[in-house]
Task: inverse folding
């Protein structure tokens, strides 16, 4: 997987674009994401059902992964079972 790859959730409607990636498995709703949408959706894990927000970037604690949500859904994003969080916006420099 490389930056620019578009992944689809197999558990809900979530779609993300990979900005930065490491060597783990990107998951949504507790199930691994794929490049193609399956015919039958996997069940949504209760631990990973907080949802995703369109246009937000999701990162891990180390900064090895960064995903851009291009289509929201009910599942939460994670990498190898570790939840990703919304990336904070960079503060603009003060102008005097």
Result:
């Amino acid at each position: 997987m490389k930056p620019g790859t578009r992944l689809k959730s197999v558990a809900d409607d979530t779609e993300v674009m990979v900005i930065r990636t490491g060597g783990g498995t990107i998951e949504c709703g507790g199930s691994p994401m794929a490049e193609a949408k399956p015919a039958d959706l996997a069940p949504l894990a209760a631990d990973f059902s907080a949802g995703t927000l369109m246009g937000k970037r999701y990162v891990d604690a180390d900064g090895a992964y960064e995903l851009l949500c291009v289509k929201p859904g009910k599942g939460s994003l994670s990498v190898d079972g570790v939840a990703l969080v919304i990336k904070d916006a960079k503060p603009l420099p003060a102008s005097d």
